[in-house]
Design goal:
Chain lengths: 353, 533
Amino acid sequence: MSFKIAASPHAHQRRTTQQVMRWVYMALIPGLLVQSYFFGLGVWVQMLLALGTAWLSEAACMALRGRSVSQAWQDHTAVVTALLLAISIPSLAPWWIIVIGTAFSVIVVKHVYGGVGQNLFNPAMAGYVLLLISFPVQMTAWPVPQELALYSISLSDTAQLIFTGFSNAGYNLEQLRLGIDGVTMATPLDSLRTDLAQALTVSEATNKAMFSSALGGIGWAWLNLAFLLGGLVLIKVRVISWHIPAGMLLGLLVPALFMSWFYPDQSVGPLLHALSGATMLGAFFIATDPVTAATSNRGRLYFGLLIGLLVFIIRTWGGYPDAVAFAVLLANMVVPVIDKYTQPIAYGHGGKL
Amino acid sequence: MSIPITLIEQGQIWSFPGGIHPPQRKQLSNTTPIATLPLASEFYLPLRQHAGEPGELLVSVGDHVLKGQAVSAPGLNNALPVHAPTSGTIIAIEARPIAHPSGLADTVVVLSADGLDQAAQPQPHSLSSDRTQLIDALRQAGIAGLGGAGFPTAQKLALQRPLEYLIINGVECEPYISADDRLMREYADEILRGTEILMHISGAAKALIALEDNKPDAIDAFKRVLPKYPAMSLRVVPTKYPSGGEKQLIQLLTGHQVPSRGLPSDIGLLMHNVGTAYAVHQAIDLGLPLTQRVVTVTGENVSKPGNYWVPLGTPVAHLLAHAGFKPEQAQKVIMGGPMMGFTLGNLQVPVVKITNCLLVPGAQELSPPADEMPCIRCGACADVCPAQLLPQQLQWLAKANDYDGLNKQNLFDCIECGACAYVCPSEIPLVHYYRKAKAEIREIAREKSKSEVARERFEARKQRLEREKQERLERHRLAAEARQQAQQQAVEQGAPNPNDAVQAAIARAKARKAAQAAAAEQAAAAEPQDDNP
């Protein structure tokens, strides 16, 4: 009888890449529920479109590269990319937006660089930036939180809007984005930016219906809290380490705190920074993509700090109201340098304990 | 850099980075006392069971040997001898497969047991003998590190370095294995007596007995006998793999690291395994060479898991059969533990000095690894690496055969504990890549030194030929000069000058030529007379 030969170790902890990815999208659920509650069911349609595009693109790429398609589907990394991109874009954007974005993320950002584990840039965020630069109108047309909206949008309206551009009653997206005051609504960060640029003070700028919630922008604050909750679960189950989210929040909030000390009237306070836009989604779900982040824990902290600081700078002085995507991509570029200078000192090479 | 004696004396325990907590599964084997194995009918004694060269053979086919009789001697290599585990006849000395990951064959003495188990006369030693005599006694007893590395104990003790502490390693952090655990529970006094001997030989004034907190019975056993040995103290470290690695245990007990490519003695420490300490006691106090050891036999596919006193050389098949082994499809037989052990392809290999465990897991128990997936740079491997390396970086470099890069990333500081591969979500066999890269780098270094030697030889030969040519020319020149001088001397002493003879010959030739010319002229003058009749 012959016996099986294998290399040590013979024991393995059973947590596969698929399980890691499954945790990531399970942790997105609270955020998805809050998003559907405030901004309608469009996000689910976008997710279906994104998933379909991602699977097809991945299959095409793997087939072209002569690799196993089922193996690529098994690791579920494309699922996470698709879901993150679908959550990031305005939920009533036309269908071709998410299709172009997802296809670009998977084909160019992931597979052209060599597939899973080889990409330099965060696929979802590179796709997002492509869309933001190419289609700025569609990409900034966030729907109005439903409690502030003039018209309510049903599920069939949602599908009609995404696929044809008009609701059942014949309204287009711009008309539907009117608030109860009859003014087209921007996101809280966008509105604040515009108002501050027009020399209004923060207290004047936030004296609007969309800021009537105690925490910040209506809808957006709860959305961020829901992503925070999901993110904390990921840390608890050790799918991500705390270093990147903590670094990013510190990098964003500490400068925001200083600014609001010195210029209370002209700067967005730390609370609004923390609970607006893609802050929490970015900190816990996007920046923590292991492939494109720094690898040592110290490196991860610096990587997070850099992203937070860049978000703060772009939100405060840059040309875009939110900046998580740009900040993440810029930090991705710095990862090799961070990795080089944060390498732990190996045992016996004179490191301190 | 000296270790912080005061803190160590206060019993402080430091920590080391990384590490994992795999399922222990020691209860399978550690609940019953160490059992004795019935003798096998044949024993296979590889001449090399330790780290180093084999000794010189002392027996030949047909010889009858007694239990404890040496079948090989240290010889010129200062190697460790091997002893007969029982009495019997040598029936063959041949190349046979040995317990090694390669599965390759090596020289093995085959002993057919006579079943009488007659022992040779033991020769105890007294601690009052000379230090070198005691070290030699340990070498003659064939004692190698029983923790797994198999480094000759005598060689470790022979280093003349000032030592602060002798550390006795009873950590046994690898899952499943309980051989040291049972030994400590049942022979705590003997282990400490061996420790006392090791302290005496090495010159260490104090000893630390280290074990993990998952062995409460062994801790109690030591606590009962420790009052007899005031220079020794107990250190209990938290359960974490690989706390029992020499470097990691030193970091846990002293807060200091052994310098890269250095030895523990560089920072005043010496470490021996509890099994080694027991064997030292046996060799010195009782005069018994190392012919048996405790082996854990465990896993779901043996019906009688437990620990056994196994005579060295016992075939694995005999031991497993006795423990109720029921192999399944694609059965793995692992020598060692699930983290660092290696699989056996052939069960006729013998138990040797470094064999601490035989693990025969069920397919569900240690399921075979899934297919290797691409690395997603998650960094889980770096988080658990006790050597603070970057396993994923090493993996990329190893796959790219970037040997310089691997050296820069300190590949050779990897202790191959397997923690990285254990946690890898992509199931990349990381350690396997490192072993392969290490072997290739060693091979390249060997090739390089070989070609270096060849080049030096070629150069030397060229120089020698050139030198010989110069010498030959010089010799000829000197000979010519000597001849000339001799001639000159001879001429001065009145011998005919050979130059005169030459001159004379030249003059003769000239005269002859002149005579011929004159004769021709005469003939020319006479001719017209002939024409005028």
